[in-house]
Specification:
The complex is a heterodimer of chains A (202) and B (460). By secondary structure, chain A is an all-alpha fold. Helices cover 77% and strands 2% of the residues of chain A. Chain A is built from 8 helices and 2 strands; from the N terminus they run H-E-H-H-H-E-H-H-H-H. In chain A, helix 2 crosses helix 7 and helix 5 runs antiparallel to helix 6. Chain A is flat. Chain B is 66% helix and 1% strand. The C terminus of chain B is likely disordered. Chain B is mostly helical. Chain B is globular, with a radius of gyration of 23 Å. Chain B has a two-stranded antiparallel sheet with strand order 1-2. In chain B, helix 4 packs across helix 11 and helix 7 packs antiparallel against helix 18. The longest helix of chain B has 41 residues. Chain B has 19 helices and 2 strands. The chains are: A mainly alpha (202), B mainly alpha (460).
Chain lengths: 202, 460
């Protein structure tokens, strides 16, 4: 096989194929649409579960030493940083994860139940507030600490912000699940919500 | 981000590409040296924070090259060539299929593509001795080893991936049931394409020029090789070193533990183990195969390995300086692309991996986004294999080491940065693997998280 344009023609054909297949697979965008309670619960618990997975990875990275994290990576894929920088990076990733959570929750639609709109609004409000709280925590690291005590407090505050957002998420889902009986059943029966409950109890 | 910021990023990107192109033109050590100049320009002219040189990869090259060069000095490479020559006598081109799968398997077992460094000199010598264009086996194997990452239960990228899809009832076995067969198919098609890629060695102009100029010796027929007395022993020691890395890679419980910062202990990572085992293999070859230490430094494998290390040093340092300062902007831009046009998610994963040279960054940023956009978790696992895009630019250690090892000049880093030897196998492999993965999900997984019917009874 000769070298030259064939490489680029093959690459272009491949990219078109990938785009076509991804287009065929399709995605879900139920933003603002009324959907079955079970489907909505499935979507919301899925979005929250993925977000918890991201936070879990961030917390794990914060807990494990830099050297270990870098060593597990492929070469040149990570830049080892100092502790404060590492926590800042963790918070940046937390903000990024919360942005994705907002997208997921908004795409989940609105359950077609009596209290469906309120339920969707409360989950959406919580996702927005999670994003805002993590952004605030990230901004707080920009203030220059004058003493070592202040510095430690900054780092502890960042950790508390992540923990608070996690706890409020759990609480929000519990409260939303109580809004009407259909949602109770939906949260109980959908696989992603069952998985989420199992992860929380672990 | 303002337009000025984007212009600055584009200018910095142009500096990186320009210096890679300049380095490639000079070749060999020149690649690393011009990479160093590029780093200097980025830091002094654009005010970027210097990134991290790829210390781990450089040290692995040193350790692996020490062992491989010691084996060459003991005549072990000649022995391997003889064995492979006999095995491949009927169909020497089988090497183009065999080598990629071995490289892929080694990465799966150890969870890191770093182990591929140990195969580079061996694959190169076997290809050349069998008069096979080394580019075919080397480039294919480098690409295949990268696909081992998403098929490895012990890779760091897998640890990042699993928590993201567990909520959709996909566990590690499900993920492997998608990525392993998909990459087997992808590698096969890639090997098929590479098997006929480029001119045969005898017809290659650059190779013939080097041969005529005496820059490279013609391949010795396997039958004419006179083995040194301890050649077999050196091969046994080298292979035992590689086997030990695999065993410790697979069985974490066998590894020594180190203190974990969060408390307790955890198994040592594979990277320092590769370095320890390869240095030990080199030392044992010196001791048991009666090789003089000074002879090791005079071998062709040692020289090309050291050149590769310097090349990697400069190029990867420059690339990391650009990436560490611009990763957020790159991820945000490509994330926004996928958010607006979800059908571009696979391309976005590939490009994030290519532009950040990080499989982990691509995994942790783009996979959650795809799931949030409502793309099925199984399909996202299939698309995850696109993180092999890390080989899109010729700034990866394995690419540079493979190009330097190939003395025939067929494996190149390209003249226009992206027209390197690894581009065709990469494009073929990632597209076929991804499509095969999607087909596997469609046929065997469907929707693992079916939505239950809305209950009709109320629950207190």
């Amino acid at each position: 096989m000769p070298r030259g344009p064939i490489v680029w023609i093959l690459a272009a054909v491949g990219v078109v194929l990938v785009l076509a297949v991804t287009g065929l697979i399709g995605n879900r965008d139920d933003e603002g649409d009324p959907i079955a309670a079970g489907e909505w619960a499935q979507n919301v618990c899925g979005a929250v579960g993925v977000w918890r997975g991201e936070v879990e990875a961030i917390v794990e990275d914060l807990r494990t030493p830099n050297a270990n994290a870098a060593a597990g990576e492929e070469p040149q894929s990570e830049t080892p940083q100092g502790r404060t920088g590492f926590i800042r990076k963790g918070l940046e990733r937390g903000v990024q994860a919360a942005e994705t959570l907002v997208v997921g929750v908004d795409n989940a639609g609105t359950p077609d139940t009596e209290e469906g709109e309120e339920a969707a609004e409360r989950v959406s409000d919580w996702a927005e507030s999670a994003l805002s709280e993590l952004e605030d925590a990230e901004d707080s690291l920009d203030d220059e600490a004058e003493t070592i005590e202040e510095s430690v407090e900054q780092l502890a505050g960042a950790g508390r912000a992540i923990a608070a957002v996690l706890a409020s998420g759990t609480q929000t889902l519990v409260e939303v699940g109580r809004l009407d009986p259909e949602l109770v059943a939906a949260f109980r029966d959908t696989s992603t919500c069952q998985q989420l409950r199992a992860e929380r109890t672990q | 981000m303002s337009t000025t910021d984007w212009i600055l990023i584009a200018l910095q990107g142009a500096v990186v590409i320009g210096f890679i192109a300049l380095g490639v033109r000079f070749g060999g050590m020149g690649l690393g040296l011009w990479g160093g100049v590029g780093t200097l320009v980025l830091v002094f002219l654009f005010g970027l924070d210097p990134g991290e040189p790829p210390i781990s990869a450089m040290l692995i090259i040193v350790a692996v090259i020490s062992a491989a060069a010691a084996m060459q000095a003991a005549g072990g490479i000649d022995y391997m060539v003889q064995i492979a020559g006999n095995a491949l006598r009927a169909r020497p081109k089988m090497l183009n299929f065999f080598a990629p799968y071995v490289s892929w398997l080694l990465t799966i077992l150890t969870g890191t593509g770093n182990t591929f460094f140990s195969l580079i000199p061996v694959i190169n010598e076997l290809a050349y001795a069998n008069k096979i264009r080394p580019e075919r086996a080397l480039a294919g194997s480098a690409v295949a080893s990268t696909f081992g990452i998403t098929a490895s239960p012990v890779a760091a990228a897998m640890a990042t991936m699993l928590p993201l899809v567990e909520i959709y009832n996909y566990d590690i076995v499900d993920v492997l049931l998608i990525t392993i067969p998909a990459s087997v198919i992808g590698i096969f098609v890639m090997s098929l394409v590479m098997n006929g890629y480029g001119k045969d060695l005898a017809d290659d102009v650059e190779y013939q020029r080097r041969l005529a100029a005496g820059e490279i010796a013609p391949p010795a027929p396997a039958g004419e090789i006179v083995l040194l007395p301890y050649a077999k022993r050196s091969v046994a020691i080298f292979l035992a070193g590689v086997a030990a890395i695999c065993v410790f890679g697979v069985f974490e419980a066998l590894r020594p533990t180190v203190a974990a910062e969060g408390g307790g202990v955890e198994p040592m990572s594979v990277t320092p183990l590769i370095q320890m085992f390869m240095l030990t293999a080199a030392a044992l070859i010196l001791l048991l195969a009666h090789v003089k230490a000074n002879d090791v430094a005079g071998t062709p494998i040692f020289k090309s390995g050291m050149v590769a290390m310097i090349a990697l040093f400069g190029i990867a340092w420059m690339a990391d300086t650009f990436i560490a300062n611009n990763e957020d902007a790159i991820v945000a831009a490509l994330g926004s692309l996928a958010e607006n046009w979800p059908f571009t998610i696979a391309i976005a994963i590939f490009l994030v991996a290519a532009l950040t040279t990080s499989q982990s960054a691509a995994t942790r940023t783009m996979i959650p986004l795809g799931l949030a956009l409502g793309i099925g978790a199984g399909y996202m696992i299939a698309m995850w294999t696109a993180v092999a895009g890390v080989l899109f630019l010729p700034a990866n250690g394995t690419q540079i080491a493979a190009a330097e090892a190939d003395q025939t000049g067929t494996t190149t880093l390209g003249k226009r940065v992206i027209d390197h030897s690894f581009q065709l196998p990469l494009q073929v492999c990632w597209v076929v693997t991804l499509l095969a993965g999607c087909a596997i999900v469609y046929l065997f997984f469907g929707d693992q998280t079916p939505v239950p019917p809305v209950p009709t009874t109320t629950v207190p």
